[in-house]
Amino acid sequence: MPSVAEMTALVAADPVVRLPGSVARWNEQRVREAIGNQQVRILVAPPGLDKDERDRVRDVKNATLRVIGTEVSGGLYQAVADDLPGWRAQFATGDVTDLLVTLVAALQDQPTPPDRDEVRWREPTERELATVAADLRATGLHVGAGATLTRVPGESARHAFPDGARVVALPPQRDGAPLPRYGPALTGLFPGTPIVVMYGSWIEYHGPGQADFAELAGASFYGQFASRLSRYDYPQDNVLAVYLNRVTDIRYSGLFDRPLPYRPVDPLRVALPALPWVFAGCVAAFLVLSIRSLRRPDGGAGRRRGGRGRDGIPARLAGLTALAVEMSLLTDARSDPALTRGHRQAAGGERGAGRGATGTARPDAAEGGGGRVGRRRPHDGHHQLSTGPLPAGQVVVKPSVRRRLGALFGTPSASPSWPARSWPAGRCGPAGRWTARSPARSAPRPCTPRPVSTWTRPRRSGSSVTAGWW
Q1: pLDDT band at 209 (very low <50, low <70, confident <90, very high)
Q2: 309 - beta bridge partners?
Q3: For residue 31, how many C-alpha atoms fall within 13 Å in the half-sphere facing its CB?
């Protein structure tokens, strides 16, 4: 490779400079018409240059267009082929006419002219066809004068064509001569046999399944490797092996059970028709749930499993407030009963608060403090009613809450010191006698006490806490 200064001098002296080993060619008339009156200078370099050598070619500032192998670039642009005829002209004959014309139009801000297939074909002579056919019958391979293929890659060929294939390797036609069309002629001589013909780095397939995968394999292979094939001078052994591997990938990918070109399922096209129905279903479900909640008694509060209606939202709010007051550390034995009784009486949640089952006032309800208000726990028609003072420093808890408190502060113990009574369908009077609600249990009988779990809390000096969980 000459130096940058030497190549700059060569380009300044001649508008088209071809360095030794360059392979690119073009239709001079078409390129001249595209250039017109513009000052365009072309530097053509051989393929297979390393990075430093390619950088030296690009450093030639007075070269408008640069061709390295068959790669065409100029300024900030690079022209590439994008269809099978363009790749065939580039790799079978080294023709870069369309690439040069396209790049000149881009540099001059002109519309891109249409591509034109510059490859010319001819039918092989009888002598040429007989020579190739004899080699194929003998070894399955014919290598023309100037071709670089040494052997057929056996493993790749077996995977691509399990029944065997015949390969013809020819050199690229750099002089612009027509290409012999061996494919159709050899298909007639070897019916049902895959025929692979190479013209330089261009590969064609003829034989069974040609209409199914030949164009797809060519477009996939050259669409991926055209850039490297245009810059480097790869031997035909490497090019053929990679092409056969691509044919294997395509033939066994399952594409041929579907009509070509294969189009995968678009999730958007599938989901769009269903979206309105999904939205309508959500709206219908919302309306049904709303109507169902409005048709319930007490504004959607529903009914208890025991059959009795709930006390309503005010009663529940009052009960929650009373529970919060009972659990507060600021509530003592004096403020607890009166405040809780006032909330329940205001909400109507406790019928006859401060009175026993017989309607008479209880002594503890008449007192301002120290007593305990009768509390009712609505659960499956069962009631718990406790009377008498709550010992200072003890908290009556449910079993679930007792376990949590024990884990936090100490070990709970069961003690009958504060009894709680439970009846399935009745009430215990202030004298400790049973008053049944049904005629079958009209006879009074003693109430059976049941011990509750208690937890003894260490009290601070001068303070006491009284709370009840119900």
Answers
A1: confident
A2: 303
A3: 19
Q: What is the DSSP pairing of strand 450-456 with strand 413-420? A: antiparallel
Per the rule left: phi > 0, alpha: psi between -120 and 50, beta: everything else, 175 is alpha
The answer, yes or no, to whether residue 394 has pLDDT greater than 60, is no
Backbone angles phi, psi at 157, to 5 degrees: -65, -40
Place of tokens 């009768």: 374
- The fraction of the chain above a pLDDT of 90, given in percent, is 43
Cα-flanking dihedrals φ and ψ of residue 299, to 5°?
A: 65, 35
Distance between CA atoms of residues 19 and 379, nearest Å: 101
- Rounded Cα distance between 240 and 133, Å, is 20
Q: CA-CA distance, 216 to 80, in Å (whole number)? A: 19
End-to-end CA distance of the chain: 99
Cβ-Cβ contacts under 8 Å for 148 (sequence gap 6 or more): 169, 171, 235, 236, 237
Return the pLDDT at 335.
57
Higher-confidence residue: 104 or 377? Answer: 104
pLDDT of residue 339: 53
E strands, 308-429, where? 383-384, 394-396, 413-420, 422-423, 426-428
Report yes or no: 362 and 337 within 8 Å, Cβ to Cβ.
no
Helix (H) or strand (E) holding 89: helix 84-92
Nearest to 390 by CA among 461, 321, 340: 340
**Is this prediction's pTM over 0.85?**
no
pLDDT at position 390: 45
**pLDDT at res. 337:** 54
